[in-house]
Every structure is written in C-alpha cells, then in structure tokens.
Amino acid sequence: MKSAVVIGAGISGMSCAIDLARAGVRVMLISPFSSERSQSVMAAGGINAVLPGAENENGDSVASHMEDTIKGGSYLGGKKAVKGLCENAGEIIRYLEGIGTVFSLDGEGKPDKRAFGGQSYKRTFYCGASTGKQIVTAMIMEVRRYEATGLIDHRLWMYFHSALIEDSVCHGVLLFNEITGKLEAVLSDAVVMATGGQNRLFGKTTGSTQCDGYAVSKLFTQGAELKNLEFIQYHPTSIETTQKKMLISEAVRGEGGRLFYEENGKRVYFMEDKYGPRGNLMTRDVVSREMDAAKRDIFLDISFLGKEEIERRIPEVRDLCLKYRGLDISRESIPVSPAVHFFMGGLAVHLNHETCIRNLFAVGECASMYHGANRLGGNSLLAAVYSGKVAAKEIAERKSENKTMDYSTVLERESRKLDELRNNKSSFPVAYMRDMIANTMNEKLGIVRNKESLEKGIEDMDYYLSAAEKISYDKSVLMYENYSITGLIILAKAIIISANERKESRGSHFRSDYPETDENSAYATIISYDEGRYKLRQDREHFYED
Ligand SMILES: Cc1cc2nc3c(=O)[nH]c(=O)nc-3n(C[C@H](O)[C@H](O)[C@H](O)COP(=O)(O)OP(=O)(O)OC[C@H]3O[C@@H](n4cnc5c(N)ncnc54)[C@H](O)[C@@H]3O)c2cc1C
C-alpha cells in the first residue's frame, strides 16, 4: 500500500491527509500539538469563492476573483495556479459544507458573504468570526473517521527533524519524539510539508509560535529552493497584548469599520479621504503603509453597527476587545496598529505542489504559489484546502517507485549530534537568541526597509550564526527549541538577503530607497543554499508554473 507522511495538522495538512486517505493512501500525520491548537484555528474573517452556478449572480465571476488575486499580489502570483485556485473555490465551499462546516447564513437561508479587502465583490464566506475554527473542527471529524479505519495515524508530540534525501529524491523523514527524546526514521512514498508560516522569527505576531520556519529552513539546507521570502504581510489591525498581537479581523472593515486618527479634536478618516468610500478595504499592504506613514495613533470604529448586529456578525471580535482591552466596541473605537501576519514566501513548488526534490511536497502557508507580493484576505484558507487537495491527487495518482534508502548512518549521526547538544555546557540561552532574532527582524524588515537596514540585518544574522555554536542546552524548554534555533537564523538571513536583492517596491515589500514598482522586476526571487553560501536567481521563466 502506498504511504505518505504529512508534517503539520492545520487546515492544509488535514486537507491533504483526508484526500490521501480517501484515495486509499496510508498517512502518518505529524504535529507536536493537536489540530485544535494549530494556527488555522485563529482564522477569523472567511474564505473566498464564487459558488458553482452562482457565476454572475451579483456581477461576480471566477474571472473577477482571479483578476483581484493577481492584481492584489502585484502580478507575482502564479497565473496558472491562481486559475486553478479560483476555479475550484466554489467546489471547496461545497466540500467544506459537506464535511460539516456551518457557514453563516443570509436572510434567505443561503451561505452569506462579506466584503474583504482588495476584492471587487462580496465573495468571502464566513462562520461569524471563527471561520478557521469551524473548518478545523469539521476536518478533525474527517481525520478521525480515517483514524478509525487505520488509514490515518495522527501522532502528537512529534517534530520534523530533517528529510531523508538521496540524489534529490525524498524517501522519508527523521522525526523527533519529544516524549522519548529520540529520533525516529519513517520511510514513505511521499512527504508533504504543511508547517505554516514563519511567525516566530518576528516574536510577537498575530499568528502562532508553533510556526517558526524551522522545517522550511532545514529543507533549504537540504537542497529545497525557497521563493519570494521578502514578501511579508503586515495586517493593518491588531491590538498588542503581553503574549502576542491579537488580530482585529478584516471582517470588521468588511462590515463597514472605519479607520481614523484624531487631529485638533476632529476625526480624520485618512483612508477614505485618500482612496474614496472603499478606502478602508484597500489591500493590506496599502492600508498598513498608510497607517505607518500617518505616524499617529490609529483607531477603528464599528460602533455604528449597533450591539445587535455586532453580536450577530462579529461576536468573537467583541469578546476579544472586551477580554484584552476592556473595550465595548458597540460604544468605543479600537486602538489598532499593523502586525506581521502572513508569509507570501516559502518553499518553491511546481503546480502539483512538489518541490525541486522529488516526492517532497509543500502545501498551505509554508509553500509559495498563489499570493504573489501580497495576499488577499480570505484567499489563504482557500489555498490551504486547495493545495492539500492538489498534492494529495498527485501523490495518489503517481506510481509507487518502490525505492528505499539505508538511513542507519544518518540516524546514528543525527542522534549523536542531539546527544552532544544535550551535553553542551556553555551559557548562551536559547530564549535570548530567539529574542535577538526577533528584534533584528522587526527593526530591519519592517513595513518600510532600505539598503542600510537590510545590510545591518544580514550582519546581525552572521553574528548570531557564529554565536549559535555557543548556545547552551536549555532543559526548561522543549528539546525541539534547542535543536531548531540555528535553522531559524539561517532562514532569517535568507529572508533579509531576498529583501535586499529586490531593488523596487512591490506589494508588501516597500523600500524607501526604491519607492517605485519597476516594471522590469516582475520576477520571483528564488534562493538556494550550498554549504553556507546563499545563491539567488530571478525566475522570469515561471519555472515553477510548468
Ligand atoms: C489571526 C489570524 C487570522 C486569520 N484569518 C484568516 C482568514 O479569515 N481567512 C484566510 O483565508 N486566512 C486567514 N489567516 C491565515 C490562515 O489562517 C493561515 O494561512 C492558514 O490557516 C495556514 O494553514 P496551514 O495548514 O498552512 O498552517 P497552520 O494552521 O499554521 O498549521 C501548521 C501545522 O504545522 C505544525 N508544525 C509547525 N512546525 C512543525 C515542525 N517543525 N514539526 C512538526 N509540525 C510542525 C503545527 O503544529 C501545525 O499543526 C489568518 C491567520 C491568522 C494568524
């Protein structure tokens, strides 16, 4: 029987695992924590689609969804891929309903849609402001169905360590079992990475600290190419807490929320003043940049919707503001600021979601394909479900190659390295290094960057890399945190190098020294790694769109 290992159990990992199991492929699903605690659960605002048969119902169409996605991504999203994404979106809503996702309904009892940024029509299906949670819950039930038949084996407390690769073919993975403290080798016909974004590099973001980028970084050092790392989405509206930046969903602006600052005792609705009535719903890169440029305290007002409508449409946002700020949003405005939210870059994949390493796939936020230089709200959940399905189809249809690999030497060598790390008595704490990486990333790779800040960022990372050898083993944190830290620095450096290389402003990448978009720079940045050397190339041939 054919087998696959899926690393990560958020929406993209589960989408892939479910379709693999449906096709009769045996799946080992790996995640340190249960799916209920994956970042996907946090997704609030909704998922975009034009339903089959509803084309042109309100003027909307699949073609318009495609156009908005390509334009919103500043013309860097893979065009063939975006076509597939948008054409399948309606069926994906039907699929999600079919497995038990309960979407919010309109007055006629049909799934309701809300307006989201950068989109020409209302096409964002939602479940109140907990869309991710509802989809995850439905998918968990499907996973359990296949667990009962033995087709899915979901193993918790397990971390990705490295891939078993020989001659550019992936044969399986080494996993770290945090309970036993040991590495385990698993051979399989295919490996699917679904490990999410790289939030942890930035410390406090709207996302989950589980998404640290280690797996992507490790594969980078093992030969996988990375794409468009410089494009990092700052979401315009968050509130800061001691632990993280809590997202104030775009749903609030979708429901009419207005951004403003105060000047001489008067409200200035700066987005509407500059961009007209839909100003608050410009794409996220534009709104974040305007907020940054305003250099004032910014507020978001939704109070005019009234208590009842707030309760009906965005109860989760009301609860969040009450809990973390003691704010009653039916009477008061929300103080908001931009925060790192989403990573358009990641593992470079072909249309079938395979990386440049055969039988190694990547889906969801850890892969780079659909969103170009800026993602539209509501397109990520869609891409997570869709990419999981695309990879599953490819794996299920592919003939098993029946190749194997003798991993004993690798397993022994890597286990020895972990033992050496445990015996490392130097005194440089892991947590301190993590904070230093986050400081550099936030300072040097903000909403606005330039040559000076980026070159200083690269210097910082080189220093951290040399210091990484002196990092002590810290028993108070997971072993995973200890062995993964160098990978975080390697990836952080790749991100800054990619940003330094793109000498223009496009989408979420804004450079004060190159403020204009350069028509000749509509390429994807591809970065690879060879024994400590970072190699960049500009992909204009759409190599990854074959
Ligand atoms: C607050 C918030 C709100 C959002 N709202 C929306 C929205 O309304 N609409 C929308 O389209 N998008 C939204 N997004 C984006 C969207 O939620 C994510 O892009 C999407 O859910 C990512 O899914 P994923 O399966 O790729 O990754 P995740 O859900 O992040 O799952 C990653 C999985 O990988 C595991 N993992 C990570 N590292 C390792 C490792 N080393 N070894 C083993 N396992 C590992 C994790 O434990 C987890 O199980 C939002 C994001 C945030 C943060």
Percent range for helical residues?
A: 25-40%
CATH class of the largest domain equals Alpha Beta
What is the averaged pLDDT score?
95
Please state roughly what percent of the residues sit in beta strands, choosing from under 5%, 5-15%, 15-25%, 25-35%, 35-45% or over 45%. Answer: 15-25%
Please tell me how large the radius of gyration is: 23 Å
**CATH fold-type name of the largest domain:** FAD/NAD(P)-binding domain
CATH architecture of the largest domain: 3-Layer(bba) Sandwich
Bound molecules: flavin-adenine dinucleotide
E-strand count: 24
Shape: globular
Strand order of the largest sheet: 13-12-17-16-14-15
Task: Give a written overview of the molecule.
- This protein is α/β, with parallel strands linked by helices and 546 residues long.
- The chain contains 15 helices and 24 strands.
- The two termini are 29 Å apart.
- It has helices at 11-22, 62-72, 79-98, 131-148, 214-221, 251-254, 270-275, 284-294, 307-313, 315-325, 379-397, 408-422, 430-444, 451-468, 479-501, and strands spanning 3-7, 26-30, 47-48, 113-114, 124-125, 152-155, 158-166, 169-177, 182-187, 190-193, 226-227, 232-240, 245-247, 258-263, 266-268, 298-301, 334-343, 346-348, 360-362, 367-368, 448-449, 510-511, 524-530, 533-539.
- The model has no long low-confidence stretch (mean pLDDT 95).
